[in-house]
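Course assignment 3, question 2. Fill in each field.
Student: A.L.
Task: Predict the tertiary structure for the chain below.
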Amino acid sequence: MVIATLFTVLFLPVGVLIGWIAHENFMNYVEEKAHPFADIIAENPHPELFDEKGKVIGNDYMALTFDLGYDPEEFEPEDISEGEA
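Answer field:
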């Protein structure tokens, strides 16, 4: 019984410490994981892609393409279509 108590007293703090360190390392890994569009963002960093702290916002993005000669005064709602992804 005394040996079991000694092992508990010795290994509980060691286990808590190892778990705490592992959790910190895991959280750092998750927070600094590369964004899927990191290469595109690095080439052409638009300010709207970043939050207040300078981290990339991990949401979906929408791209708008306008034909040459597009005049916004002639806009019609039926002109909107979903193109290629």
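Instructor remarks: The helical segments are 2-31, 38-43. The chain has a mean pLDDT of 79.
Grade: pending
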